[in-house]
Amino acid sequence: MNVHGESPTASSLEQAAAWRIRLTESPELFRAGFSVWLAADPANEQAWRAVQTPWMFLGEQSTSPSVVRLRRTALVHAYNALRSNWLRAKLRRPPVRLAAAASVLIALVGGILWWQHRPLVYTTGPGEQRSVRLADGSRIVLDASSEVTVRYTADARTLALVRGQARFDVAHNPLRPFTVTAAGRKVVATGTAFDVNLIGSELRVTLLKGHVVILPADASVKPFVPVGEPGVNPRMADVAVTGIPPNWQRIALDPGEQLVLAEHAPPHVSRVNVRRVTAWQRGELVFKNEPLRQVLTSIDRYIPEPIVAGDARAGSMRISGVYQEGDVDGFVGTITHYLPVRAHERSDGTVILTYYRAPRAAAVPASAPQISAPGASSF
User: Fold this and answer.
1) Going residue by residue through the chain (379 aa), what tens digit of pLDDT does each one get?
2) Can you give the residue ranges of every domain in the chain?
3) d(CA 4, CA 6)
4) Predicted TM-score (pTM) of this structure
C-alpha cells in the first residue's frame, strides 16, 4: 500500500482512467464499486484527482455539445487503449501497461487543454444577423458581415471583434473580466451592455448600460480589486489593469457615451442617441452628417456587391438619413437624386458613384445635405 502523499503509480492512474470511463457511461451501475476502490488505497484518491481535475477543467463549458463530443472521443480512445492494455497484461508485458496508461492520460488531458485554448468563431454573411448565447449567460448579437472569436478560461472571458459590428450583453462576474479586443484596443467589462463597430480603420465603442473602460490591446486585466483601494476607479473596481504605456490613459464611458478612435486623430468621446446606434438591430441604417465614403463602408456589409465612391469629391460629400438594410436601389436612387453624383454599374456588379457638376438651377449644397430615404423615419 502506498504512503499518503506519494505520487500515484502508473497502475493506479490506469485504474482511475478506467473508473472515469465507467462512471461516464453508466454512473448508477458503477458508483458503489468506485467508492470501494477509492477507499482502498490513498494512491487511488491521488490518481482519481489527477484524472478528474483536467476532466472537469472546462467548468462552465462542460455542457457544450462540442465539449461533450470531445469527451466522448477521448473516452473511446481511452477505452480502446485500456482494453488493449488489459489483453496484453495477460502476456505479462509491463512496459505496455505503462505506455497504455500514459496514452490514456495524454488523450484525456491533451484533448481538454486543446479545447480550452481553441477559440469559438462566430460569423455572419452579407445582410445576415446572428444572436449567440454564451456559456455564462452573456449574449452577442452580430451585425452583417461580422466575425467574433470567443475564448473562455477559468478566470477570463476573452473575445475579439475581427470585423463588422456586434452588441455585447455581459453577464456580471467580477472574477472573470469580459474583454473585447478590436483595432488595437481592448474594451473591459464585468457586467454591462455595449456596441463595438469597426468601420474601415475607425473604431466606435458605445456604452448602452453599465460601465466599461477602453485600454490598449496588450494591457493585462486581472479580476477583483477591492472597492475603495486608493487610485482605483470605482466604476471598474472589479478588475486590475497593468501594462498601460505612460502616454496612454485609459478611457471610461458612461451610458449613452461613444468613443471614436480614428487614424491621425485624438480619441473623441461624445454623447450619442443610443436608439440611432442600435438601429442596425431593427434592420435600419442611420447616418448623421457622415462622409459618403464612410457610409458606403457600412452599407457594404449588407449587400453582395460593393458600392464605391469613384473620386475624392464624391467620397467627401456628407449625408444624413435613414435607410433600409439591403435596399441598394433605394439608396442609390436617393443619393443620385439629391447629390451631384452619377451611378455606374460595372460588369462585376460593383456600383461606382462619381461627382459631376450639376446645372446651377439644380445644384445641391455639398456641405451636409439632409437626405432621408422615401418613407423612412428621421432621428
Assistant:
1) 444 445 667 777 778 877 877 787 677 888 889 999 999 988 888 888 877 766 665 444 444 555 555 555 555 555 555 555 545 554 444 445 444 544 555 455 555 555 555 689 999 999 999 999 998 999 999 999 999 999 988 788 999 999 999 999 999 988 888 999 999 899 998 789 999 999 988 999 999 999 899 988 887 777 644 444 454 444 444 555 555 555 566 789 999 999 999 988 889 999 999 999 999 999 999 998 999 999 999 999 999 889 999 999 999 999 888 888 888 888 999 889 888 999 999 999 899 999 987 655 444 444 434 443 333 333 3
2) 10-117, 120-271, 283-362
3) 6
4) 0.64
CA distances from 19 to 15, 80, 250, 347 (A): 6, 14, 51, 66
Q: What share of the chain is helix, strand, coil (3-state, %, to 5)?
A: 35, 30, 35
Question: 132-145: b or e for each residue (b if 16 or more CB lie within 10 Å)?
Answer: eebbbebebbbbbb
Strand runs labelled E in 251-313: 251-253, 257-261, 268-271, 284-291, 307-309
- The fold of 120-271 is Jelly Rolls (2.60.120)
Domain 283-362 classified CATH 3.20.20.70?
no
297 burial (CB, 10 Å; 0-12 / 13-18 / 19+) is buried
Distances (CA, A) of 5 to 11, 40, 43, 44, 183: 16, 15, 8, 11, 50
